């Protein structure tokens, strides 16, 4: 069993920044990819970024490339999502997730956090 807990969400104005954290526990993640997703009401869950736990190889969706940065701290078993230049369309619930291997597909992620709300006002 793997537990993921997000934190760091909140309400900001357009152009501001937030850093989300995801603390992982329950098993080792050396062969896992950690991903960040978001979901707005009435919309599908959207892939944002992923990072391999072992080598910190990163991959971003085009929608956030250049604005968001994913990173990890192995000692703390924590993955981060630094979000800069936030826009109103970034408003959503943000989830971290873990998958064995490499994937950008929500279905491939076995473990999910509870989500944290990010609201960006214009």
Please provide a written account of the structure.
By secondary structure, this protein is mostly beta strands. 0% of the residues lie in helices and 52% in strands. It contains no helices and 11 strands. It has strands at 3-7, 10-13, 18-25, 32-39, 46-52, 58-60, 68-73, 78-83, 92-100, 111-112, 116-121. The strands form 2 sheets. Strands 2, 4, 5, 6, 9, 10 and 11 form a 7-stranded mixed β-sheet that branches. A 4-stranded antiparallel β-sheet has the order 1-3-8-7, with no helix packed on it. β4 and β5 (46-52) form a beta hairpin. The radius of gyration is 13 Å and the shape is globular. The N and C termini lie far apart (40 Å). The mean pLDDT is 94.
Give the SSE order as H and E letters.
EEEEEEEEEEE
Portion in beta strands: over 45%
* Count of alpha and pi helical runs: 0
- Major pleated sheet: 7 strands, mixed
Radius of gyration: 13 Å
Broad structural category: mainly beta
Number of strands: 11
Form type: globular
End-to-end distance: 40 Å
Helix fraction, binned, reads: under 10%
Tell me the layout of helices and strands.
Layout: E1 3-7, E2 10-13, E3 18-25, E4 32-39, E5 46-52, E6 58-60, E7 68-73, E8 78-83, E9 92-100, E10 111-112, E11 116-121
Parallel strand pairs: 2-11
Antiparallel strand pairs: 1-3, 3-8, 4-5, 4-9, 5-6, 7-8, 9-10, 9-11
Note the main attributes of this structure.
122 residues; seven-stranded mixed beta sheet; 0% helix
Give the structure's gist in a few sentences:
The chain has 122 residues and is mainly beta. It has strands at 3-7, 10-13, 18-25, 32-39, 46-52, 58-60, 68-73, 78-83, 92-100, 111-112, 116-121. Strands 2, 4, 5, 6, 9, 10 and 11 form a 7-stranded mixed β-sheet that branches. Strands 1-3-8-7 form a 4-stranded antiparallel β-sheet, with no helix packed on it.
